[in-house]
């Protein structure tokens, strides 16, 4: 089968290590199932793998792609929860299993014609979502769902700031927080992206812009470029939830502000299978659909990642093999 494969790693030139090539068809072992890929989506995680961040070189070559929707050999239409872990090793939450991984870390990923995944990770695809839409959800949307509702406890009426609007996690966070009844502010770096934030239901601001009020919750996966602004936008006792650090992971922590304003800084990673199921139900019930920037073939995956690295896209980029 054909697949998009990480063959080498380079922090500054990540796409040099990406090849579309023939790979052996995967065969399921005990407890795992083959899924014929109907759609997959791109995530920043794939770029980190190609940069050599969080993915040891010994694990190459590795088929990329965390997110997939497809069909099993017996015709079941499924979405694959992207966190692979043992709930009992994480106190009932597989994202807290110290050995948990993401699809494409210890097993080959979704940018291929077929993938083999643990049977436990299969979730029935709701009829209300296409394969392309469903393939956008487990990692970016699942992470946003967990950040907002499990970790930050966002409630109707809360004020929420999302740092960045155009990306996968951030566009999902805006959409889900709006649907949950929060007033959502979002920063974005260009007028076009600010308009996009508005189309998702947020009140847009330029990056670093002064909001009309302080907020209970900030969603920040941008990191160094936005951290100081995130802390300044919080009410006393407010909470910033981070799931990433696209622009750098070591900003000034501003401990004086954190203790004096009694702020809370919490992390969030991935989503449990149960959270992805809840997300799918919520989206089907509310008729929410992820924004798809473009649908490309395997041969165009490099262009898709280039657009992602340059920030020249809105929402999610989907691949149909
Ligand atoms: N822990 C987890 O489980 C988990 C899961 C998913 C993602 N992540 C991490 O979360 C981050 C986002 O992932 P993604 O897949 O959503 O990436 P993405 O689609 O490429 O989105 C990147 C976002 O970052 C913003 N951004 C980038 N550079 C910026 C800068 N210099 N200043 C301000 N904003 C900037 C963009 O805002 P604009 O709208 O202004 O362009 C955009 O919204 C990545 O670091 C990823 O590794 C973590």
TrEMBL record:
InterPro entries, A to Z: ADH-like_C, ADH-like_N, ER, GroES-like_sf, NAD(P)-bd_dom_sf, Zinc_ADH-like
Enoyl reductase (ER) domain segment(s): 13-319
Segments for region (Disordered): 1-31
Gene3D superfamilies on file: Medium-chain alcohol dehydrogenases, catalytic domain, NAD(P)-binding Rossmann-like Domain
GO molecular function: oxidoreductase activity
Domain of life per record: Bacteria
SUPFAM superfamilies attached to this UniProt entry: GroES-like, NAD(P)-binding Rossmann-fold domains
Identification of the protein by name: NADPH:quinone reductase
Originating species: Raineyella antarctica
